[in-house]
Structures are given as structure tokens and as C-alpha cells.
Membrane associated phosphodiesterase
Amino acid sequence: MSAPGAALLTRPPGRGGGRGRGLAMQLLLAAACAGYAVGSALGWGSKQVADFMGDFGLSGGALLAAVSCYGYARTIDPRERPAWLLFAFSSLMGACGNAVWGWYEVVLGAEVPKHSLADFAFLCFAPPAIVGLLVLAKRPVNRAGWVCLGLDSWLIGGSLLTLSWSLALANAARTAQSGTPSSVLSAALTLAYPILDIALVSIVLVLHFRRSETNRSAVNTAIAALALTVLSDALFTSPLLSAEYKSGQLLDAGWFAGSLLLAYAPWGAGRSHPGPVVPRHPRSDRPVSRPITGSLTALTPYLAAAVCTLGILYNVVDGRKVDRVVVFTGCTVVLALVIRQGIMLLDNIALTQELAQKENHFRSLVQGSSDVIMIAAPTGTLRYVSPAAAGVYGREAEDLVGTELATLIHPDDLGRVVHEVRRFLATPPAEEPTTRIECRFRSGGGEWLNVESTVNRHQGGLILNSRDVTERVRLQAQLQHSAEHDALTDLPNRALFTRRVRQALTGRRAGDHSSAVLFIDLDGFKAVNDTIGHQAGDELLVEAARRLQDSVRAGDTAARLGGDEFAALILGDGSRDRSAREYQVREIADRLRATLSQPYRISGSEVRVAASIGVAFAEPGITPSDLMRNADLAMYRAKAGGKDRVELYAPQMQTEVVRKAELAGRLRTALHEGEFALLHQPVVSLATGEVTAVAAQARWRSAQGILFTPAEFLRVAEAGEGARAVSPGAAGTFAGAASVRAGELGRWLLEEAVEEAAERHRAGHDVPVAVRMTAERLLDRGAPAASVEALLNRHGLPSGALVIELADNDPRVPFDELERRLAALRRLGVLIALDGFGSGYAAISALRRLPVDMLKLDRGLVEGVVESPRLHKITAGLLRIANDLGMQSVADGVDLPEQVMALRSMGCTHGQGMAFSGPLDEYRLRRTLVRGTFPVPGALAQPALAGGSSSGSMVTLRGSHNETPVPPT
């Protein structure tokens, strides 16, 4: 689209209205001038009307111009304001002069005197206009420019004065010299008018060639108005018209039109085209021509000298004596021309030197630049190539000159480059002066270099400033690869895998629902890190990634998501048979599982891990995150089902996740709203039936009033172990549930148990309370031993009244730190019991190193102690160890009388379970403590072991912890 067409289409609202108003003003101006001219030509119908229109009509037009210029001066830039104020004053003088003429001719009905105030007003018209035009002229930048401006004015004015003097003014001057004083004054006035007009015309011409770019339309219209006024003055002062002039004649139409045109200049001309000017640029196939105005400006001095010469020749050819004024003026014009040409010569010499210096400077910049600068003709042929081409492209600049640019660009990039160049050349330069193009460029060695070029227009062709960016492109590719691939295995990471899944679910594959995502977890990998080190674990991951990459098809994607988790995207084949597709994908998953489960040779040792794989298929409308979440759920279902297996996603898996998440949320709310209750289960001496301690247990009271046991509500918290199996939101919920169990619930249980135990002691029930805690909880920085001391001091609980049951701990817990923590607790008078004894692989090590006061047999050992001879022997051996170490023993889960008798016969000292009592609230517990004992089945039976006292109680340990020394390590 052409620039005018683009300007028309992008015209803002309201511009059409402004253009219409400008056209209406122009039509109104033309109608007024034409009407006045017609009236003048017809004599206005009567002498009275002619006198009125010739005097007051001209005065009204000039007054309108004065008001218009003054009003415009108040709204514009202060730098231009003086010029328009001077134009207003000049028009006001013209209005006053015509008003004086009207006073004599219309009001008084008399002839206008030869010398009156009108002459003074008319003489004051030209000087303000001359100064105003000088204000609007483009100001020279140096002193020589001001001199040239003055010389140009005199060249024009002097030449016009010479010509006018030769034609008419000489006679008036001679008349003034030989006449009376009145005739001298008349001649002086006769000379003043044309001289001022000559000066005004000179300034008008100078301004025409030296005008500024600010508001050109208004300035040009003002110049035209003043030129029209000067022309009318020249005709008035001519001998042919001055003697016959009458007010209201056709000559007045020129003055009237000049006044109206000056009144129109600042408003109509300045706003007829208010929109931004759209720059035009020459077509690439046309040579750029020099502006005509520039040529006329350069020829102005010579034209002025020619006019002056014509004035002198006129006198010589006519046979007249050459007037001294003509000779003097002609000589000064010639002298001014010589001076001006001398200044211009010196200026040209300075400009030539400066241009040569700049050319050398830019040549040095171009030739010394590390970038390659090339100039291409409109046909695409290289006209110039800078010497840097030898170092950048490996080709000499002379060899590239004359070469077609298209032959040097990679064929795959050529179409894109041609399209960009054509688009750039079709865009106006003001909107887009440069553009950037990146393509591959053939080097001298034949390889392709990545080149970035800044392109500019140059006489229909192009200037290309190019640089080699091959290393930058290579580095960007490496960074992109690093951002999308796992650093250890070089497989795609989670971000790239997610994008590949999104691509498989959209585009042309949007209707193919046979694509599947496999989530893979290496079972037993954590043990590899813990046993043979992280370096070996990394080697195993690298080998597993290689096996996975080799097992998938070429179009599929294998990725490492993090840790020992991998994933695979199996693209669909468009099959609509869901069962056949599931069978095919399951075969692929089984093959991957078998491949990943084969032994690994790591650091000379054979290592085995298994693979649990979850599979999820694309469904209509499913999102990438949901598809990946489904595969993750299926994978953790495979781990929960026994590991080393493949599991396909089913919708009920998500339902179960939602249910567990809701329950975990309810548990957190329940804790903060006080819905947990504290119960105590009596610990009974198996010999006497005496209640020797109580074990604190938490219960959750649901909205329906049902009390859930720890096994029931903590199972949900234990699901936090598998928090990775769900979406990030659900994972956070499960992790929060686990945090509730380990943190807030533990603190609540300890504080409630200590507080109620202190109240029972104050009531006279001197029975210790046992609270179960994990080793991680004891070592948690958020719950140091000082908090236990603070609880004991706050509630006044005596020494030996609190028993900490240490649950089976993670083997990664540092034993040294745990030993120091337990020793500090024992110094506070806290008893330590090893809970779950006989079930954990670290129990013997804990018994050997930790300061333990009593052992609590695991429920699993108690449940089958009567029926299983093998379990009977194991339990008896553990109790023998406790008796040999002089420790009390407590059996958990004693629910049957037969278990009571069997355990007592093995030497177990205390029991806890339904054989005596279940968990009790505070009211029932106090009633039980008042009673004090429970009936014991077969109470007369004697213990089979002689190591410990069957009738001893926990309370006997309150005295000194030194009575149960720790065996030597």
C-alpha cells in the first residue's frame, strides 16, 4: 500500500471534520475575494458605495487580519509569537490608513490631502512586516551565515532598486531636487512607498528560500498575502495608475485579498491538514533528483546581479546618462556578490576539508571494523565488501564483490531472507529505518556460518552490517539443551517431557487417544545410595537411563523426572481398539520393567533394583498435568501392590486420593478445633494385678461422635510417605498430614499427658504416664529436651512420673546424638522405654548403646505366643535378655488370659491390653486407680526364669537410674 493510502486508512476519528472545515474556510475566502473583485470591476453601482468599500472595506479587511494574527500569536510557541504580533501591528497600520481615507472621502465628502495621517500609517505597514518575516526566517548557525543573509537581502533589494530607479524613480527624484518643499515632500513619499515595497519584496524572497520548517503552511500563506499586498502597492505607485486611481476600483481587490489571505493564514492554512505528514520515500528504481528549491537558492545571487545589470543596460541602451544612484547601487551589488562568493568559497573549502576528514574517519572505521560491511545493488549484486570479510568469512573482499548475495545464503534460509527484505523495503523508512536478519552464510572453507546482519536502505539497494554469531548460536543451543535435559543422564527433563506430552495431546494428534504415559520408579534405589554411596547411585541411574532410552521406539520420549523417577511417552498409532492398544502398551511396560530390573554392574559389584511402572492413557479433553498425575497414581499403586510390577490407571485411584486428602484435611481441622481426646490404658503387673503405670493414647472424635483409634486416623498421615504419587496439591495435603502426626499431634499428646498426670498426682494417684515418641521427634530442633523440662517444671510432675516410649527409629538417625538426648532426659528423671522391642532390625544396636530403663515387647510377638512354638521361643529369648540386663519388661497387646499366663511364665513383668482394660477416659481411669488392681489369671503360678522379680513394679525404678547400668559396649 502506498504511503498516502496508509495515511488515509489510519486517519484518526474527527480528522475528516477538520478537513471539511478547512475546505469551507477556503471556499468562503475565495467567495469573499471574488465578490469584492466583481463589485470593484462593476463600480459598486454608485460612487458612494465605491468609496465606502474602497476605504472602510479595505480597513475592515486589514483589521480582521490584525485581530486574526494577534489571536494566533497568543496560542503558539513564544519563539514565533513576535513575528505574528508584528504582522498584526502591520495590518493595524493598514486599517488605520484606509480608515483615514474613509473619513475624508465618505464622512467629510472631501478629497484626501496629499499629506495626511494615512501616509504615516501606510509607511508604518512595511517595517513591522519586514521584521516579522526576519523573525520567521531560518536563523544562521554562525557569523558567516548572518553576513550571507544580509548580503542576500541587499543583492535582491539592490537589484530591484536599480531596476525601479531606472524605470520610474529617477524622474521622481529629479522632481524632488528641482521643486518646492511641498513637491520635495511629495516626491519623498513617492520614493518611500516603492523603496519600502522593494525591501519587503527582498525579505519575502529571502524568506522563501530560507524559511524554517515550523508551521510551513501558515508561513507560506502569510508570505503570499504580503506579496499580493506589495504587488498592489507597486501597481498603485506606477505612473500609469497613480494619477487615475479612485477608491473602490479593481486595484483595491488586491489589497482586500491580501488582508483576507493574511487573516486566513494562521488558522485555515495551519489547520487544513492537521494530521501527521506521512514521509514519502523514492522508489528504488528511480534516481533521486536534487530539489528545485535548492537550485534556486544557489542561483539567487546571480539572478539578482543579472537584474542589476539589466537596470544599467536599460539606461545605456536608451541613450540616457547613467544615474549615480544606479552606478552606486550596481557597484555595491557586485561588491556584495564578490564578498558573498568569497565567503561561500571559504565555506566550501572548509566543508571539503571536513568532508575529507570524515570520509577518512569513516573509511578507517569501516576497514578496521570487525563486522563485515557490504553494499548490495537493487539487483542483489554486492558492490562493496569491507576488508573484515577475510577474517570473518575466510574470503577476500575482492572475491565477494560482484557476487550475487543469494548465492552466499543457505538455501533453507533464502526464502525467509527474501521475504524479510521485501517486507522491509515496502515499509516507510520513518516507521522502520533498519531491520535484523539472521541466516547461514557460506564461508571460504565451505562450512556454514551463522551470521546476524543489520540492514539499512541505500539508494534503492541495501547496506548490510554483518557479524559472525556462530559461537553465540552454538552456546544458545547448549543452554537450551541444558535447560531441557537432565544433567546426569542427558534424558529430557520434566519441562521438556511435559511439553512433549502437550504436543501429543494437541495439534494433529488431538483426536488420537491411544498415546500413553509411563511413570517408572526404581525400587531399592535408596538402599543403594545408603549402602555403597551416591557415586554408585549416579552410575546406576546413568545405566538405567541408557537402558530406558534403548528400549523405547524412535518417536517416543524417555525422560528423567528427578531422583530415581523416570517416565516414557508412548505415542499413539491411531488405533481405536482400546483393548489391543492396552495390551501392546502393557507389553512395552513389562519389557521395560524386565530390562530395568536386570542386575547392574556398579564399581565391580552386582547391584539389583526393581522397577514399578504406572501406565495412563490419553482421554478426550485430558490435560498434560492430569495425564501425568494419573500415571503417577498408577505407579504408586504398583509400589503399594508389592513393587516390581506394572499397574494401569483406573478412575477409582483418583477417587481414593481425593478421599484421603479430604480426611487429612479434616484431621488437621480437628486438631486445631480440639476434637482429639486423650485416653489412658492401664499397665498392669502380671504377678499382682496392680496398676503400675498408664499409657497415654490419642483418639479422634468425629462429628458423629465416633472415636477413631491411632491405627485408623494415623494411617492417613502415613500415606504422606507416598505423597509423590499425587498431584502437587494433594502431595502437599498428605505431607501436611504427616507433619500433623509428627509435630502438632506429638506436642499436643505430650502436653495433655503431662498436665493430666500432674493433676492425678495432686489427687494422690502416684502412677507414671507413658508417652510414645519417635527418635526423629526427640531430635527435632523444634522440640528440644528443654520443652520436656519446661512441662515438668510448669506442672510440677515429680521425677520418675514420665516414661518416654522410644519407638522403632529410622537407622539413619545418628545414635550419638540420640544417646546424648536420652541421657539428658534421664537426668531430668524421665524413664526411657524401648518400644516395639523384637520387631526392628536396629533394636539390638539400640539396646547396646542407648540408656534404656525398660523394654516393651512388640504386639506381633504377643499375639501368637500361645499358638506358635517358634514365636514362643523367640519371645522367651527376648525376655531372658531383659531379665539378664535387670530391666522391666512390658508386653503390648495382651488381650487373652492364656497370653497373660504364658508371658508371666516366661518372665514378663508387666502387661497392657484388653485382658485387663481398654483405653479409659479420665473419669473411668480414676475409678480404676482407686480400685488399684485387676484379677490376674493363674496368679499362683511361678515364673520360669529367675533373673528378675515377678512382683516388681515400674515404680521401683524411681530412685536412682544408676541401679540399671548400661552394659559395656
The mean pLDDT is 76. The first strand starts at residue 372 and ends at 376.
